[in-house]
Amino acid sequence: MTYGAMTGTKTHSLKGENMDRFLRINMTNRTAKFEPVPAQYKDRAGRWLTSSIVHDEVPATCHPLGPNNKLVFSPGIVTGTSSPTSSRISVGGKSPLTGGIKEANAGTGWSRRLVRLGIRALIIEGKADGLWLLKIDKNGAQFEAADSHAGARLSEVYPPLFTRFGGLKTVDVCSIGVAGENRMSAAGICFNDQDGRPTRYAGRGGLGAVMGSKGLKFIVVDDAGAEGVAIAKQDVFDAGRKKMAAALTEHAITKPRGALNSYGTAVLVNIINEAGALPTHNFRSGRFDGAAKIAGEAIFEGNKERTGKELYNHACSPGCIIQCSNTWHRPDGSEHSSCVEYESAWALGANCGIDNLDQVAEMNLLCNEYGLDTIEIGGAIAVAMEGGVAAFGDGARAIELVHEIGKATPLGKILGAGALVTGKAFGVARVPHVKGQNMPAYEPRAIKGIGMTYAISTMGADHTAGYTIAPEMLGVSGKLDPLDPNKTELARAFQYATAFIDTTGHCLFIAFAILDIASGFEGMVEECNGVLGTNWTADDVGRIGKEVLDLELDFNRKAGFTKADDRLPEFMTYEPLPPHNVVWDVPDAELDKVFG
Amino acid sequence: MERGAAIRRPLTFLMIDIHLYGKLRHFADDSATTAQSIALVSWQPGDTVGEIVTRLGIDQTDLGSNVFLNGRYANLQTPVQDGDRLGLFPDDMQLLYKWYFAPQDSAGAPSNNGSGAPEQDSGDPNSAKDGEK
User: Fold this and answer.
1) A594 has a pLDDT exceeding 80
2) Which residues contact B5 (CB under 8 A, 6 or more apart)?
3) Over the Cα atoms of chain A, what is R_g?
4) Which of residues 51-80 of B touch A (CB under 8 A)?
5) HEC profile for A374-400?
6) pTM for this entry
7) CATH classification of A3-222, choosing from 3.40.50.920, 1.20.1740.10, 3.40.1190.20, 3.60.9.10?
8) pLDDT at A468
9) Contact B106 A474 (CB under 8 A)
10) Which among A293, A472, A478 has CB closest to B100?
């Protein structure tokens, strides 16, 4: 179809404008406006920019699903360049799940196309009746009604959209599923992978519900004729990019046929289980008897058996060296589900006591079809099992429960509202959440450092907020003193480093390589200097990360959060976790010291 | 829990269980990836993880940083006690920063072996460069 077929407001032209702009969309009257990047946001991108705009423009006390919330998309600093593993899109807004600020990100070519059109941030405001498709290309922005797609599975609507708008070589698609349309707090925002599968999610915190509340169903981005990303200092950029690529290619975890490429993130199932920290049966135990059956090794060998060949993983987005995205195949060899991540295999598997990989893969597929965060849904189903809705281990019933969400039945809407609401609905005390967000796949009683991250993160229980905020780190040099102030300094440092990586547009998994290989870390800073023309050093990584966290903390304070929200659930302080038989015992004062 | 249940132990030797993953699984009788690949190795007083690993025939350079003794991060110098569970992952499965986990007692949990030995340089290629620099 051509532009003439589109209804709605006029085309808003990008032509003749300088590159590097904001695109502001008002859904109430469906208008689009291009703005120069305000001076105070110079050099900001990715999480730094989305959190800045949410902090500065969204009233912290607004209802997340009301007209005053905003949804902000921003590619990272080096996204759209030749830098490897850098096609992340940062999405921000006020979270309907936590009531605080939310930043979720995903790897997708959609991010590259947006930034190559010169759009540093896409800001969605207001609230429309009905469902709409927004198309963005070099000629501007257009709207058309999308009500006819309501309720459909995403794998049914993506292929016709690609066909209509010129195919995978021309466009990438962002959308919500039925969960977002129904404003469920576990709804994520979906982006396609390189093969057009609707499988890459800015999953956590219910940003899909925010998009749904605005009446926005699809954002199609076409970068044909785009000028691309301007690079201020080409030689500096090139030097940095080479160091980054070398580090990723060399490191055992990130290199081709390394751990992530061979086994995917699900390699962690066996590792964390061996450590006694794999949350099982709604966080009752740290070991799952069926762990090996749903682990990365089982996926690799199962695929080999069913397809007759060794399948190595693929890149979720253009330009990735790590390539950790897997597929799971049916007994007849046909593709069943992608991507069965560690977090998903755990949430829908071990946490629900389910050790059948085909059932786990089916639930994973359904979450992608309906537009759901697999972690929150696995958490909600496990809590529902605790409440007697189903038996632990009953995979067939668990699949039915995901269908209930897809049909938006009353039971489905309770589950789709997340684990905390599900716990209230079914009278369950054991709800493993922080700030209303279900914990991911690391037991905080067995891994105290990640528990600290869960407690103090601005995002609610989030493993990606600070990978290494571990008191155990000090154990390397001797015995651990839980009151040693150095620990909180390290805790801060790693949350700051993470916020910086989320700002560059790189995938967080580069951390494995750049924290082990010093030249890779230098390369990350040099790439940014090359694009922006800045003279940042390693010290600026901490400075910028701190600025991001400070903005997020300030938003949460204004939204009403206090130190009392920076706590793990009470049951973890009195229920010892097997096999280590430990409780959560990090003092509150220690948590409160991290951000002061 | 599963340890000891399905495994018949020779009465005359003290043994420890070794749970093996990835390319190390073939050192166990059952190397199926969907099962527990467990090898039994004889134990002598004073043994360390490194000695047990060598006794099983595993080249120490094939190990990554993911070495667990009773579910706690360990290294080649960590003392091993009779009845311990050792978990070994190969060098292509070192998907965690080792500082995720407490060496010995440092997370405040009771340790099964009670040795509380301080962490030393394990010879692990990642250990020296890890971290906050």
Assistant:
1) yes
2) none
3) 22
4) 64, 66, 68, 70-73
5) HHHHHHHHHHHHHCCCCCCCCHHHHHH
6) 0.90
7) 3.60.9.10
8) 43
9) yes
10) A472
